[in-house]
Amino acid sequence: MKFLFVNDLARFARSTYTIAKYVEIGRELGHEIAVFGEQHPEVRLPHSLDVKKFDFALFVVHIPSDFPDLPYLARLLDEIPKERRVIIDCLGRFNDTVRVERDFNHLEKLDGHQDREWVEGFQAVSDLILQPTPRPLRSDVRPFLFHAFDPAAVLRSYQSPQEAARVWAGSNGNAKRYGLVYVGNNWQRWTQMRPFLENLEPLREEIGPMLIAGWDWDRRPQWDIELGLHAADVDRALLARVGVETQEAVPFDTVTPLMSQARFSPIFHRPLFNHLSLVTNRTFETFCADTIPLLMLPEDVVDSIYGADARPLVPCDDVAGRLKDMLRRPEFYWEAVMRTRAHLAQHHSFQQRFKELTSILADEERAGVVTTDNRTHGRS
Amino acid sequence: MKILLVMERRVNAGSIQAAANYVRVGAEMGHEIAVYGRSDPAFPHLRCSIDVERFDYVLFIVESRLDWMTGLNLSRIVVRVPRSRRAVLDADGMYNRVVVVNGYDRNHPSERDRERWLGFYDELGDRVLQPTPEPLESRVSPLLFYGYDPASRVAGNGDGAKRFDIVHVGHNWWRWQEVGNHLLPSIERLRSRIGKIGFLGLWWDATPPWAARLGLEAAFQLDLERLRRLDIEVHPPVPYLEVIPAMSMGRINLMTQRPLLRHLGLTTSKYFEIFCADTIPLLMLTASEAERVYGAAGRELALDGNLDQKLIDVLDRPAVYQELVEEVRGHLLAHHSYRRRVQELVSALAD
Question: Fewest CB atoms within 10 Å of the CB: A289, A326, B49, B217?
C-alpha cells in the first residue's frame, strides 16, 4: 500500500522516530511511505506533495500544526477523499476534556483551541480516528497502538542474560558512562520524576552519574510560569542533591545510543497517558537501548504491553530497593529485559502494526467508512 | 445576513475595534455578526461564536501574520463552509506584488514569501477584499471596511485642560522613518514651545528581542535616547476600548501610518477612531491623501511639509482647528459610518 504521513515533523520531539521506522520497515514490506510536504531541512525522510498517488493519508496528530497550513491543507482535502484520510490521535485530543493532576488533553490558554474545535476538526477531516491505546474512551475511536518495537534496532544483542549482565556491569573493562539516563522533555513529568529522584537520593553513589536530556530541565520556563500551568516544574536543588546533570534535547535518531550509555533508563508516561492508557515511541524504543528499562508505569499497562515477564522491571513504590537488587543480581533482570524484548518482537513489532493497520482499513472499507478506491476525489 | 469574522483577537492592536463596531452596528441593522472564538472578558460586548455553519459567510481578517490560523481550525472551517461563502480581508496589502517603499517598508521579504501568502489566500476564500478604493491586483475587490462610529465620540470636559499637548497612539511598527526624519526634527526645533508629549504603544521603549531573528530590525528601529532628550514620555499600549479616551488626553493627536499602507492607499481603524477622540488630529499624510478620506477640511489637518507651523498654529488657535475637525466629522458621518460599512460588506459578500 501507499501511505502518506501528515505530521509537523520535529527532530527533538513527538512521533518522528515512529514515522521514520514506518518508512524504513514499510519499504522492506513492499509499502510506499512518504511524509506530506516539502523536504524537511533536518529530517531526511522521503517527502511528497503528489497526494493522488497514495492510498491513504495518515494524519499523526499531537499539536494543532500537525494539520498543515493552506494551501497544502487544501491539496490534501481536495485530492484525497475523506474515506481515505485517517487520524492517529496520539494525545487523546478526540475526547471530552480530561484533567489528570495538572495534565490535560485540551487547554485553550495554551494553544488557543477549545475541546469542541479538536473534536469537530478531527470529524471534519476523517471518519476514522485511531488512538494508541488498547482502551479508547469513545466508541467511535478504534484502538491502534501505532508506536512499536523494532528488534533490528536493538543496539546490542546478547546470547544470554549472564553475558548481558557482565557487559552491563562493566566487568569487561567498558563501564558505562552513566548510572541512569532519562531522555524526554520536561512536560508533565515532574510529579513522577520528583518522587523517583527522591527515592534514588540515598543510592546516588551506587548508581553513579545521572543525566536527564530534554527541553527545560535546567529551569522552569517563563511561559509555564506566566500561564500558571505547572506543567514543566523542576527543582534544581533536588537535581543537584541527587547529582543529576541536565542537557538539552537530543535528536530523535540519537535517543537510543544516549540511553545505552546508562545502566538504567526509566520509562514514564505523563499522567494523561496513564489515565488514557496511551503509549508513546519511548514505550518501545527504550527496549532497543543497551540498558535496563525501569517501568514507572501502571501495572495494567505493563501487563498489556510488555507481558508478564516484564514485571521485575517495575519498581513499584520501592525504586531504591529494586535498583539495589538490580545492581546485586543483574542477570535476573537482564533475563526479564530479554524476555520482554522477545514479547515485544512477537506482539508489538512494526510488521505487526502494518498488519493491524491494514486489517483496520479492510474492516472499515467493508463497513463503508474508508475506501481504497482512489478514483473518487473531493473535499467532504 | 449572518457573518462570522475570523481574526487574530488582539486587545491592543489590529482590527478588533472595527470588529466590535461591526458586531454592534450590524445588530442594529438586523444582521448577525460575530467574531470567531469563545467569549472573553477582555472583549466585553463582543459577540463570539465557533459555530461556523450557523453563518452565511465567513470573513477572514488577515493582517501581517498567518500563524494564528492553525491547520486544525482551518480544517474545520474549510470543510464545513464552502469556499464560495468564505472571503478574505487583506488588511496589510499582502495580496500584491512585492512592494518596497523607500527601501524601508515592504509587504514581503521575498518572492517566495509572497507566493506562500497568495497560495494561502487563494485557498482561504473565493474573494479577496482590501481596504483601499483602488486595489492594484485584478483579483482584489475594494472594501474600505474600517469606519467612523459617532457613538464612540468622547465629548470635551469644557475646560480645555489636557495631560499632554501632543499624543501619539500606535505601536512603533514601521514608523521610525517618519517619526525620526520628520516629526522629531520639528519637535527638536519647537520643544520649548510645546508642553508634555506622550507616545503610547508597543516598542517605543525597546526593540523586541526577537526582531533581529525575524529579520525585522528595520520595522522596530528606535532611538530611545533621542526620545529621552526630547522629554517624550513613553507609555505602554492601551486596550482597544481605551484608545479613544487615551487620544483624548492630548490637545493634538498625531496620526502616522505605515509607509506601505499609505503607498497602497489602505485605510485602518486609526483613520477614523482618532476623530472620535476629544482632540485635534493632525495627519501625517499628504494633503491629497487626507482629502481622499476626510474631504476638503482634511487638507488643513495634514502635516504635509509644514510641521513646525501647523503644530504651533494648532496650539495657538485651537478653535479654528476644532471647526475643521467638526467639518471632517460631518464628512465621515456622511461617507464612512459603520452603518455604511456594514451595508458595503453585506453587498460585497452577497455579490
Answer: B217
